Design the sequence.
């Protein structure tokens, strides 16, 4: 084979560089705050987005401290982790607030790119969406009025149990105690109100918001024994594997460098 001349090698190299720079789809080259992409995760850019150039997170913003309102702004653990992921990918970031049991539908239909709402991986949910790696661990706790005869999960049989509709507390309690035991509410705050009014006997909900509810409502307490422990992950449409892989890579970096833990520690302080 004849050796290529230096001039020809230069032409081939220039052509290769030109082709490399002509990728299509949603390029993640710059972020909304003007930073370059030198520190972003090594990811594919052929994923689909509901809004070009923007990572849209579906949530239910009534799950403090994971997502809740401060004035008109949605803040919390999931909101900050989601924003950090978007920054890693060089994308803008927006949050779409909706009923909890509408999140998987929104993600599956492409109306939102990912679901973050203190969401646990379950076999039923895995039928409809794919999940990222775990980024936080939650505990399902039982809230009761002070003086209640409910002292452990074993005492829930025959009781009226309040839950936020579509959450794992709802799923677990329905499996364990049946439909007749369940009182479902669109927001955790509505379940707590029903408990204070004596309409139900207890509320099963994640421990982090449970602590906030008990602090805000005199006469309630959290049982020492947890109902269940679970891991939280991010939901994606099954046909959007490239986005899941991109977010997973960014999330992995944020876990590795301590960013995720620092966000969690900001909202959940050790007692």
Sequence:
């Amino acid at each position: 084979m004849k050796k290529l001349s230096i001039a020809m090698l230069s032409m081939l190299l220039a052509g290769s560089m030109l082709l490399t720079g002509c990728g299509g789809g949603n390029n993640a080259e710059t972020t909304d705050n003007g930073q370059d992409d030198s520190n972003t995760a090594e990811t594919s850019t052929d994923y689909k987005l509901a809004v070009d150039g923007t990572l849209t997170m579906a949530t239910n913003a009534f799950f403090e401290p994971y997502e809740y309102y401060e004035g008109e702004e949605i803040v919390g653990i999931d909101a900050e982790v989601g924003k950090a992921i978007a920054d890693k990918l060089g994308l803008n970031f927006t949050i779409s607030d909706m009923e909890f049991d509408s999140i998987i539908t929104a993600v599956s239909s492409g109306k939102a790119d990912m679901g973050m709402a203190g969401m646990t991986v379950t076999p039923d949910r895995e039928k409809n969406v794919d999940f990222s790696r775990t980024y936080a661990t939650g505990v399902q706790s039982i809230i009761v009025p002070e003086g209640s005869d409910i002292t452990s999960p074993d005492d829930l049989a025959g009781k009226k149990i309040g839950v936020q509709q579509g959450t794992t507390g709802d799923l677990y309690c329905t499996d364990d105690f049946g439909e007749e035991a369940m009182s479902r509410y669109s927001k955790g705050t509505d379940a707590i109100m029903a408990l204070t009014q004596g309409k139900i006997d207890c509320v099963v909900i994640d421990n982090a918001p449970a602590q906030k509810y008990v602090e805000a409502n005199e006469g309630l307490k959290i049982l020492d024994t947890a109902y269940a422990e679970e891991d939280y992950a991010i939901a994606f449409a099954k046909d959007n594997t490239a986005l899941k892989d991109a977010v997973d890579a960014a999330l992995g970096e944020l876990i590795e460098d301590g960013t995720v833990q620092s966000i969690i520690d900001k909202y959940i302080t050790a007692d």
Q: What stands out?
A: The longest helix spans residues 241-256. Residues 132 and 234 are 5 Å apart (CA to CA). The mean pLDDT is 85.
